[in-house]
Design a protein that fits this description.
This protein is of the alpha+beta class and 368 residues long. 43% of the residues lie in helices and 21% in strands. The strands form 2 sheets. Strands 2-8-7-4-5 form a 5-stranded mixed beta sheet, with no helix packed on it. A 3-stranded antiparallel beta sheet has the order 1-3-6, with no helix packed on it. The two termini are 25 Å apart.
Length: 368
């Protein structure tokens, strides 16, 4: 059985961390710190709860002065690196969390600290409350960061202002109006680091969920400039393509499907037990006298608790289909129990989607 992610906070981790802290704060009480960390609820805490708990315990074992505590954290980072800790270790996400929790009323000190800390562990979560509270000043700072020599700081400039960054609070004002962050994305779209360019794509994908026209207008201007930019805008449009957005489909060459036919669509498993998979097959015929570029997907309509159906789209392929050709497609979709989806027995459906157009739909039963 795989080790639970929350167990990254183990004896080995705390040995390294407390040893490093003692090099910076000689009177740091390791035993008392660990006693407070391993409280009666420690075993029941999930990963994010453990991270936040460590943040709070660390504060209790430092001073009451935020500025002094930030100096300690900034001195601690090179000591951790000297002691073998590599940058971007998830374990140390409580360091930016410390700034987020205790530094929101200390803008100047916190922003300078974030610029340094993010080069050790990403501050993409920690920066968001500062955007919400001090949007104009923080966005201006992030635009300055887009010119920073360190790629992790440049990535923070775009990742931190994603309107819908997963696992943390959204930024409501940027969901409504993303225009303040567009100059950052324009600046970083040609960044030499793929790590940064991917973040730009993810930010644009976030924007597309609330302001599709903003993204369409940008990608039209950027399309065809470089191979790297072409990849970026394709990745940025992944939600629009799943939604079958006509302009996005046309931009990437997925056009008329009048000469594409679906035949012999069959659900091979009309009754599927939870834990097994639905299997289906169909033939895709290109009756045209020329090659057709096809984005082929299927929609799975999951039954919800109230009996209604909710569609999730899965990609099969993007490829050219030769003229006058017939291709047999076979697919399976697992109903193995997972933590991120609850299955409900009853009627479900599968549909075939070509270039954003939903065609045939067939039903099947999910049973115990």
């Amino acid at each position: 059985m795989a080790e639970l992610l929350k167990n990254i906070y183990n004896t080995k981790f705390f040995d390294c961390f407390t040893t490093s802290v003692q090099e910076v704060v000689p009177n740091f009480n390791e035993a008392a710190f660990l006693k407070d960390v391993y409280d009666n609820e420690w075993g029941n805490k999930a990963l994010k709860q453990r991270m936040r708990h460590i943040t709070m315990v660390l504060k209790n074992h430092l001073s009451d002065n935020f500025n002094l505590n930030i100096e300690t954290i900034l001195k601690l980072i090179p000591v951790l690196e000297k002691n073998g800790v590599k940058p971007d270790n998830l374990e140390y996400i409580f360091l930016p969390d410390f700034v987020e929790i205790f530094g929101l009323d200390h803008y100047e000190v916190s922003i300078k600290a974030i610029e340094t800390i993010t080069q050790f562990v990403s501050c993409e979560f920690a920066i968001r409350p500062f955007i919400i509270k001090y949007q104009d000043n923080t966005i201006k700072q992030m635009l300055l960061w887009s010119n920073h020599k360190h790629p992790s700081v440049r990535r923070l400039a775009t990742e931190g202002c994603r309107p819908r960054l997963p696992w943390v609070m959204a930024i409501p004002s940027l969901k409504i109006n993303p225009n303040p962050i567009i100059p950052i994305l324009k600046k970083l779209k040609n960044d030499p680091s793929e790590y940064v360019r991917r973040s730009v794509a993810n930010n644009l994908n976030d924007i597309s969920k609330d302001n599709p026209e903003t993204v369409i207008n940008l990608v039209k201007k950027w399309h065809g400039k470089t191979n790297e930019t072409n990849w970026l805008i394709k990745h940025a449009c992944r939600t629009l393509l799943k939604q079958g957005n006509t302009e996005a489909m046309t931009l990437f060459g997925f056009e008329n499907i009048d000469n594409i036919k679906i035949t012999d669509f069959i659900i091979l498993t009309p009754k599927v037990k939870i834990g097994d998979a639905v299997e289906f097959t169909f033939k895709l015929a290109n009756t045209s006298q020329k090659t057709s570029k096809i984005r082929l997907e299927y929609g799975l309509y999951y039954q919800k608790a109230n009996g209604s159906l909710s569609r999730k789209v899965f990609k099969i392929s993007e490829r050219d289909y030769p003229e006058n050709s017939t291709t047999v497609i076979n697919r399976k979709q697992s109903f193995k129990v997972i933590t991120t989806r609850k299955f409900h027995i009853g009627s479900h459906q599968v549909s075939i989607i070509i270039n954003g157009k939903e065609l045939d739909i067939l039903g099947f039963e999910l049973i115990k």
